[in-house]
Inverse folding.
């Protein structure tokens, strides 16, 4: 059984798979540990009363799967072919690996706004990860775009290390959990701009200011960083044409199973979930995928 991705879905599938007695290999993918590694503190994963650092949580999941014999390899699958019953996977465009069953747990990646000059400003002030890049803006003024859980978590995280945080929300309200909204309101250095959009990135070699277009007027705010938290795209590019997906590219599964339209291929975690997108759901679907893969492999007597 080969598992693609090493976030909570992939590592839980590995833990169950290896304990079922399957030879279990995980390819970590582009972002080992997945999106939880970009979160600071995870407060809603059951069992951790005081919360736990996202990176530590996925490291523990990996160590737990490895303890039972799962093999976690560096690399990403760039192509999958199926000949008769076997899958042939190309790793990083070179190495070929055969598998009787594949669990796709490649997750999703942060979206960008698509602003003019955004490409040029990536890594020069524009980022999608406050825990990765916030450090560079210590004591400075930054902005965050978005009104969801990610945006508010980023704003709260940045408010602790930056002088001031401008939170730019396109709607008249935020969609994030109430507890996060309360914390944002209570924060003394987060300024919320409702019904507003960032329309321009200003600066020569790096970002120095943004233009925020509100309902009635536009303002220019001097910032050293802009953190975009405007949702995610599923990491399914390499499977286009092979497996059924919805219009946004999320893999379709026959719920409650994790079966995809390709026999022997299962999908778990955010790559097949455009709605819940929680670590605990990803882990749970990884568990189901391991059951489904085991049943499939037994039925084929590999
Ligand atoms: P999300 O819930 O899809 O929110 C995206 C936000 O970005 C929305 O406020 C959306 O505005 C805004 N947006 C999208 N496109 C935009 C654009 N072009 N310009 C300006 N704003 C734009 O994404 P998310 O916050 O990344 O969360 C994804 C999932 O992960 C959710 O299910 C969330 O609950 C979960 N999550 C949970 C936690 C936690 O539990 N602690 C932490 C992080 C994420 P509109 O509201 O107007 O659409």
């Amino acid at each position: 059984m080969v598992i693609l991705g090493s976030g909570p879905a992939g590592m839980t599938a590995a833990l169950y798979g290896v304990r079922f007695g399957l030879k279990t290999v995980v390819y970590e993918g582009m972002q080992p540990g997945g999106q939880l590694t970009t979160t600071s503190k995870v407060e809603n994963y059951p069992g951790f009363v005081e919360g736990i650092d996202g990176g530590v949580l996925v490291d523990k999941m990996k160590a737990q799967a490895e303890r039972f014999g799962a093999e976690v390899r560096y690399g990403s699958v760039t192509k999958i072919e199926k000949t008769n019953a076997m899958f042939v996977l190309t790793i990083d465009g070179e190495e070929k690996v055969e598998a009787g069953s594949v669990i796709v747990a490649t997750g999703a990646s942060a979206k960008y706004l698509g602003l003019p000059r955004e490409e040029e400003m990536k890594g020069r002030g524009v980022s999608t990860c406050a825990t990765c890049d916030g450090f560079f803006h210590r004591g400075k003024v930054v902005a965050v775009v978005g009104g969801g859980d990610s945006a508010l978590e980023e704003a709260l995280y940045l408010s602790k290390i930056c002088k001031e945080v401008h939170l730019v929300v396109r709607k008249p309200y935020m969609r994030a959990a109430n507890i996060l909204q309360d914390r944002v309101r209570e924060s003394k250095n987060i300024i919320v701009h409702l019904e507003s959009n960032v329309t321009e990135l200003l600066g020569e070699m790096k970002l120095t200011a943004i233009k925020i277009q509100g309902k009635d007027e536009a303002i220019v705010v001097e910032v050293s960083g802009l953190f975009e938290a405007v949702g995610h795209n599923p990491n399914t590019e390499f499977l286009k044409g092979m497996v059924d997906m919805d219009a946004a590219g999320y893999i379709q599964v026959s719920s409650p199973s994790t079966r995809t339209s390709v026999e022997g291929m299962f999908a778990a975690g955010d790559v097949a979930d455009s709605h819940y997108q929680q670590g605990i759901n990803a882990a749970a679907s990884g568990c189901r995928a391991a059951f489904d893969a085991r049943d499939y492999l037994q039925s084929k007597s590999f």
Observations:
- The chain has a mean pLDDT of 96.
- The pocket of NAP is lined by residues 44, 113, 145-151, 153, 170-171, 175, 197, 229-232, 277-278 (CB under 6 Å).
- The chain has two domains: 2-110+232-298, 118-228.
- The longest strand covers residues 77-83.
